[in-house]
Write a structure and sequence with these properties.
With 77 residues, this protein is of the alpha+beta class. 10% of the residues lie in helices and 26% in strands. Strands 1, 2, 5, 6 and 7 form a 5-stranded antiparallel sheet that branches. The radius of gyration is 12 Å and the shape is globular.
């Protein structure tokens, strides 16, 4: 079973609403993805809706989104 991971932040269409983030898709083998437009801004990942106590990684600083390529490079650093 895979863990649900959600994307949110001012760089995303979801904004900072942790009750309505974007759920990432998964291939079932541990790879998570989402296709969409990112605005310049910041984003984070959470594993539980409605709380900031589920940041990935724990106590993560925000990531900067300047372009889609920057998005991918920040995830896999």
């Amino acid at each position: 079973m895979t863990q649900d991971i959600y994307l949110l932040g001012d760089a995303t269409p979801a904004g900072w609403n942790n009750n309505n983030p974007i759920r990432l898709d998964t291939d079932g083998g541990g790879f998570y993805y989402w296709e969409g437009y990112l605005n310049p801004g910041h984003f984070k990942f959470i594993t539980k809706l409605g709380t900031w106590n589920s940041l990935v990684p724990v106590n993560a600083a925000h990531y900067d989104a300047i372009s889609e390529m920057n998005f991918f490079s920040n995830i896999y650093k």
